[in-house]
Amino acid sequence: MKRTEISTLGEFGLIKVLTEKTKHFHPQTIRGVGDDASVWDMGEKYLVCSTDLLVEGIHFDLTYMPLKHLGYKTIAVNISDIAAMNARPTQVLVSLAVSNRFSVEALQEIYEGIHTACQNYKVDLVGGDTTASRSGLFISVVALGEAEKEKITYRSTARKGDIICVTGDLGAAYMGLQILEREKQVFLANPQMQPQLEGRDYVVRRQLRPEARTDIIYELADLGVTPTAMIDISDGLASEVLHLCKQSGLGAMIYEDKLPIAQETYDTAINDFNISPITAALNGGEDYELLFSIRQEDYEKIKLHPEISTIGYFTEPEKDIHLVLRSGSLVKIQAQGWQHFQEKK
Amino acid sequence: MKRTEISTLGEFGLIKVLTEKTKHFHPQTIRGVGDDASVWDMGEKYLVCSTDLLVEGIHFDLTYMPLKHLGYKTIAVNISDIAAMNARPTQVLVSLAVSNRFSVEALQEIYEGIHTACQNYKVDLVGGDTTASRSGLFISVVALGEAEKEKITYRSTARKGDIICVTGDLGAAYMGLQILEREKQVFLANPQMQPQLEGRDYVVRRQLRPEARTDIIYELADLGVTPTAMIDISDGLASEVLHLCKQSGLGAMIYEDKLPIAQETYDTAINDFNISPITAALNGGEDYELLFSIRQEDYEKIKLHPEISTIGYFTEPEKDIHLVLRSGSLVKIQAQGWQHFQEKK
C-alpha cells in the first residue's frame, strides 16, 4: 500500500486532503472548515465554535511553562479564534489526557489558570473530558461564542483598497520562546545556573501567557467599525496575510516601517540572537494579535487607537503580497509558519 | 509539595475537584459540567455541546481496531451524548494528534469512517485541528446539537415511580472486547494463527462499530414520549443507573429477568469466558445504548417497541439501588465502571 508522509503535505495540505469529501446536511451551517471557527445559524444570531489540541513536547514544554500559565494560555488561544470571527466568547469545554506522571495537584494548577482565564474573558467552563494517556499531557479546548449576523467577520471578505490593521505588537512571543529555549539549554548544561530573564520579562510573558484580543472586538463595536476580514495571528503575520489574501482573492502591500514591534522584542532579536526583528514579526508564531482589514472610510475612527496599527492595504491579486522595505524596495512575502510535522529522520 | 495520585480519586472524583471553583457568567448557560452535554439557551431552542478525547492504548487498540471503524466510532460515541439529552445532533469538529508512525493514507482511512458516520447521523463536519504527537494517536471530537426547550432531558429529573427503560441490548460490546483481546493474545503468541471470530460477529461489531441511538430519539418524539431523565450507557448499566439515581435523588429497582441480553452475548459470556452475562450487562462498557425513564402513563406508548425494554422503576432514595434476581432475592448494585487511571505500579 502506498505510504505518503504527513510532512510532505504540511498542516494545511493535510486538512484539505482529509476534509475534501465533507458534505453539509444542514442549511444552518454557514461556515465549516477553513476559517478561525465554524458558524451555525441560531436564528437571531450566529453560533461560532472552534477547537484546538495542545500537545506536550509539540506546543509546550513543561521545563519552563508553569502549569498555571499553560491553563491560561490554552483558554486564551481558543478565545482568540472566537474573537477573530468578531464574535463574543461565551463557553469553553476542556479535555485533558494525562499520564500518571501528573498528580492531582498538578492538574489543579492547570485549572487555576483555566479558571482565571474564564474569569478574565467572562466565559463559562461547561464541560470536557478527563482521561489517562500513556505518556505526556494533551489538552483539547472547545470555545463557543456568539456573533451578530451583520457583524461576523470571515477571512474571505476583504476587498481591494481595504486598510490592513494589526493589534498590539508582533514577534514578542517568538523572541520569548528563543529566550526560554536558550535558558533551558544553559540549565541542562549546568543545573546550578539560574535563568537570565531580567529585562526580558515582556517577551517571556508574551510567550507564556498570551492574551486574546477580545478587548479590541468590544472597542471596534463601540467605534462602529466592522472589519471587512479578520484572522488571529497564531503562525506569524506573513502566514496570516497569506490566508486573508488567498481566501479573499487579493494581493497586499505591507510596510516594514509600519510593523509594530516592541522595543524589548527589537533588542532581544538584535542583541541576543542577531536576527532581524522584522523576521520575528513576520514569521514568529503565537502573538495571538488580530489581523484585520477595514474600509478606507473607517480609517478616521481607528487612527488614534493606541493598540491598532495600520500596516498596509489590499491590492489586486496579480500584485501578490509584498513587503515595502524602508529603502522603498519590494520583497515578496512567503509564508513560513510553524511546521509541527517534521520530516522523518 | 503534597502529591495526590489521580488514581486515588477516580475520574468522577477528579472532575469534581478540578471544576468545583467553576463560576458561570452567562444566564444562558443552563447546564455545565455534570450531564452528557452542556446546555446553552439560544432563544428559541437549546444548544447542547459535548466533547470526548480518545487515546490510543487507553480507549482503542489499533491491533484489532480498523482505522475506518475507529473514525466511525469516535463520531458515534459523541453523537450518543447528544442523543442522551433528547437532542438532535447537528455538527461535529474533529481534532487529531498523530505521531509520524501514521501516513496520510492511514488518516484518510480514519476520515472515511468519520464521513460515513456524519452521513449516517446527518451531522456536518465543520472544523477541528490537526497536529503532531510524540507518540500515539489522540482524537478529540466535539458534537453540537439542538434540543427543543420543553423536550430536553437531563440526568437529574427522574421522579419516584417512573419506569426505567433501556434501548437495544447490553453487554455485547464488552464481550466483543474480550473476544478481540483473546484473539490478540493468541496472535501475539503465534502470528500464524488466524483470529477465531466466527459466530461472534455481533459482539465484535458492537465493540468495533457501535451506533448512537438517535433513531430512538426521533421515534420517542413521534410517539409523543418525553423521557423524564436520560443518560447514555458508556460505562455499564450499573454506573449509569447510579448516576441517574444520584442526580435525581432516588433509588431504583432493576429486574434481572428484564435485562435485554442478546443470545450471542449470553453464549460468549458463558461458553467462552465462563462469566455471568448479567455481569457483562451491568458492568461492561461501551454499549452506547440509552438508559431513560418515562412516566407510568406513557408505558402503553412504548410497550410494544422492539428496541425498548422496561427494566425497572425509580424508588425513594432510602431504598438504594437493587437488582431483583430471578429467585426474588435482592442484590445491592454498585458501580464498577471503567477505571482508566490505574494505580502506579
From TrEMBL, chains A, B:
Q: Which organism is it from?
A: Raineya orbicola
Name of the molecule in the record = Thiamine-monophosphate kinase
Q: What class of enzyme is it?
A: transferase
- EC code: 2.7.4.16
Residues where Mg(2+) 5 binds? D235
**Function field:** Catalyzes the ATP-dependent phosphorylation of thiamine-monophosphate (TMP) to form thiamine-pyrophosphate (TPP), the active form of vitamin B1.
Chain positions recorded as Mg(2+) 2 binding sites: D52, D81
Per UniProt, Mg(2+) 4 binds at D36, S50, D81
The reaction(s) annotated as catalysed by this protein in its Swiss-Prot or TrEMBL entry are: thiamine phosphate + ATP = thiamine diphosphate + ADP
- The chain positions of domain PurM-like N-terminal read 34-146
A GO molecular-function descriptor: thiamine-phosphate kinase activity
Record domain PurM-like C-terminal: where: 160-277
* Top-level taxonomy: Bacteria, Pseudomonadati, Bacteroidota, Cytophagia, Cytophagales
Single GO biological process annotation from the record: thiamine biosynthetic process
Identify its protein family. Belongs to the thiamine-monophosphate kinase family.
Q: Give the pathway annotation.
A: Cofactor biosynthesis; thiamine diphosphate biosynthesis; thiamine diphosphate from thiamine phosphate: step 1/1
Q: Which residues bind Mg(2+) 1?
A: T51, D52, D129
User: Which residues take part in binding ATP?
Assistant: Y111, G128, D129, R155, S234
Keyword check for Iron, yes or no: no
Keyword Metal-binding among UniProt keywords? yes
Residue positions annotated to bind Mg(2+) 3 are D36, D81, D232
Give the UniProt keywords, A-Z. Answer: ATP-binding, Kinase, Magnesium, Metal-binding, Nucleotide-binding, Thiamine biosynthesis, Transferase
Q: What else is known?
A: Reaction mechanism of ThiL seems to utilize a direct, inline transfer of the gamma-phosphate of ATP to TMP rather than a phosphorylated enzyme intermediate.
